[in-house]
């Protein structure tokens, strides 16, 4: 009798994308989500672009996603559909951007470039008023830090269950991709160092940023359905700003303001100053003063409060009196 040939492990791109029908349950129960245990090529996470498409989600997927919870900075839950429908249920035009983990330097750079190119006011003044919201996959307790770091003027939410990511076909990879995108204005080394410093400074929240493998995408909603989307193929593959502006109907390429490129040396210098200041506070029992010996008690209290805010990553951005990460209320 002829021998049965031994089966070989598949190394095709299809094998690199987890089967969402079998992994969704595990994603829902573990907010930090451990790496997949399926047998695949161990180098696949770092190779090239993922083989994903930009097909819009089906009506079935949209209906399933509608009532899934998203969380604001306070941990308050809102149905996902509240981002693309008015309080009375009327559909509205909305761009929803899914980012990676909350410590991702590339995504933070993307939001800084995005906010330099458009604002809530410019989107609201379009012929069809439009909103823009950001969703990350980490703990909602990090939203305030994220908003402060990115100077983001748009609402930010969290989906720590990964259900929306899975349902809308966003997958996982660690590949940087073959090309540096135009939106990146800082060096890759700087962004990586900043990500490490942020996570270390977050203390007990360091492990709550989200799955480092998870990538996101951009989805434009009109009349209660997705009319255009872009799924990331690598960790830097957000839709470029001119593409978004064109899709939204904003005139011109966006006039992205180029900031002075920041290198790792400057980051280390800032970090050194921050730690030196904290060490001085500890050595003096928290009584270090700014200026002369006649500084008021209020100065000391302010310093202590600033340091507590830095350590907790609790700086909060406001826009029109509303805290980033809060859904608009009726």
Helix run count? 10
Percent in strands: 5-15%
Helix content: 25-40%
What does the average pLDDT come to?
A: 75
Rg, alpha carbons: 22 Å
* Strand arrangement across the biggest beta sheet: 5-4-3-6-7
Unreliable stretches covering 5 or more consecutive residues: 1-32, 34-44, 255-276, 278-284, 286-300, 313-323
The largest sheet, given as strand count, sense and whether it forms a barrel, is:
5 strands, mixed
Shape: globular
How far is the N terminus from the C terminus? 74 Å
Count of strand segments: 9
Order of helical and strand elements:
HHEEEHHEHEHHEEHHHEE
Structural class: alpha/beta
Task: Give a quick rundown of the structure.
With about 325 residues, the protein is of the alpha/beta class. The protein contains ten helices and nine strands.
3D structure, described in words:
The protein is an alpha/beta fold. Helix content is 32%, strand content 12%. It has ten helices and nine strands. The strands form three sheets. The chain has a five-stranded mixed sheet. A two-stranded antiparallel ribbon has the order 1-2. It has a two-stranded antiparallel sheet with strand order 8-9. α7 packs parallel to α9 (264-283). The N and C termini lie far apart (74 Å). 33% of the residues are buried. Residues 1-32, 34-44, 255-276, 278-284, 286-300 and 313-323 have low confidence and may be disordered.
Explain the layout of strands and helices.
Layout: H1 20-29, H2 59-65, E1 69-71, E2 77-79, E3 93-98, H3 105-117, H4 120-124, E4 130-136, H5 143-150, E5 155-158, H6 163-167, H7 188-201, E6 217-222, E7 225-231, H8 241-248, H9 264-283, H10 297-312, E8 318-319, E9 322-323
Parallel strand pairs: 3-4, 4-5
Antiparallel strand pairs: 1-2, 3-6, 6-7, 8-9
Helix pairs in contact: 7-9
């Amino acid at each position: 009798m002829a021998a049965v040939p031994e089966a070989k492990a598949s190394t095709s791109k299809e094998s690199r994308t987890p089967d969402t029908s079998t992994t969704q349950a595990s994603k829902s129960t573990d907010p930090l989500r451990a790496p997949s245990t399926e047998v695949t090529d161990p180098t696949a996470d770092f190779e090239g672009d993922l083989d994903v498409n930009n097909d819009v989600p089906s009506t079935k997927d949209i209906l399933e996603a509608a009532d899934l919870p998203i969380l604001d900075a306070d941990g308050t839950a809102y149905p996902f559909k509240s981002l693309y429908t008015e309080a009375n249920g009327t559909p509205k035009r909305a761009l929803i951007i899914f980012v990676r983990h909350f410590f991702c330097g590339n995504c933070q750079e993307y939001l800084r470039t995005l906010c330099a190119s458009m604002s809530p006011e410019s989107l609201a003044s379009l012929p069809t008023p439009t909103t823009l919201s950001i969703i990350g996959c980490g703990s909602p307790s990090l939203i305030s830090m994220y908003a402060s770091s990115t100077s983001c003027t748009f609402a930010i939410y969290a989906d720590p269950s990964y259900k929306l990511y899975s349902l809308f076909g966003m997958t996982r990879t660690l590949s940087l991709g073959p090309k540096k995108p135009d939106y990146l204005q800082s060096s890759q080394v700087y962004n990586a160092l900043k990500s490490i410093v942020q996570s270390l400074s977050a203390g007990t929240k360091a492990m709550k940023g989200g799955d480092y493998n998870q990538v996101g995408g951009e989805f434009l909603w009109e009349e209660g359905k997705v009319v255009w989307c872009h799924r990331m193929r690598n960790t830097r593959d957000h839709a470029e700003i001119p593409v978004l502006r064109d899709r939204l109907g904003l005139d011109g390429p966006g006039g992205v303001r180029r900031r002075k490129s920041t290198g790792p040396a400057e980051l280390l210098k800032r970090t050194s100053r921050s730690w030196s200041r904290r060490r001085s506070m500890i050595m003096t029992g928290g009584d270090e003063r700014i200026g002369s010996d006649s500084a008021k008690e209020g100065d000391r209290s302010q310093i202590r409060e600033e340091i507590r805010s830095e350590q907790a990553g609790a700086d909060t951005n406001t826009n029109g009196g509303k805290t980033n990460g809060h859904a608009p209320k009726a």
